[in-house]
Amino acid sequence: MELKGRYVADGSDKVLEFPSGIDWIEVVNETTRDAAGDGTKIIGGFWQTGVTNTYGFKNYKSNAAHTVETDGLTVTNGFIYIDATGSRLGAKNSTVTAVSAATPPVVSLTSTAGITTGSIVRFGKVTGALQFNGVDFTVGTVVANTSFPLPFAPTIVAGTTGDLYPVIYEDRFYPRSRFIKSITASGTSAVIILTVTHGYAVGDEIRLSIPSEFGMVEANSKVVTITAINTTLNNITVDLDITGYTAFAWPTTAYLGQYAQTIPVSESPMDSGYIGMRLKAVAGSAGVAGSANDVISWRAGVSDY
Hints:
Blueprint: E1 2-8, E2 14-18, E3 24-29, H1 30-33, E4 42-48, E5 57-61, E6 68-72, E7 79-83, E8 93-99, E9 106-109, E10 120-123, E11 136-138, E12 147-149, E13 162-166, E14 173-174, E15 178-186, E16 189-194, E17 205-209, E18 223-230, E19 235-238, E20 261-264, E21 268-269, E22 275-279, E23 295-301
């Protein structure tokens, strides 16, 4: 069996979904393949089950003479196999040594395996920061095996050792429920910051679920419409006047209850699971997914042996 396709890259990761499992995939960046040699640009890549390098290999032109060389890929720029019929979470990472009280909080750890800038992580029990337990956060710029910030997380009292889990893929529904970082007033509207890149659109309707421990109980169960979005700040503006409402605030260190969330009024269901491959994007065509406007062709299938 062989599957194939072609797409124009938009500069972000590309997820290819397959009707069944595969054990190999090959991609060709037609744009960089036909351009002048540049050692930073990938012209193609290959992944196969059982290869020595988990994230596959790349071909690139190492000089202006178009000399093609091969090298290993990484979690940042390579292939990541997805089996969404199984667990959404990756292997537990128990190397967290601190979650700072900075704004935004910075997570210190000794291994960043499986964690990349822009990915999502879920916390286990972090001593001194139990209120993060079970919450998903978008990851900021990763310093390999050292640290990363949580750009959309609330400021907390510092935590120490604990666990986290990479979120391999998200729920197969849109819009998705999201955890709330903060709610503030903007005139007669409310501005809500979410803990992960939310994916909402103007016009979406959501219901606010605000446990009393987070304050602002007046907003609990309100159904609101999104009127504006700021992707840089990861916030949404909704048609709710919160003038006179109790202030919204995250609970203290030991909290282990329900969390404040935005819950879609309606969801578009998709298949409960799928097999796929995430092609990672890096600026300058240094990832197998390609940079914006690169033309990418791919083949995938199951070996005959």
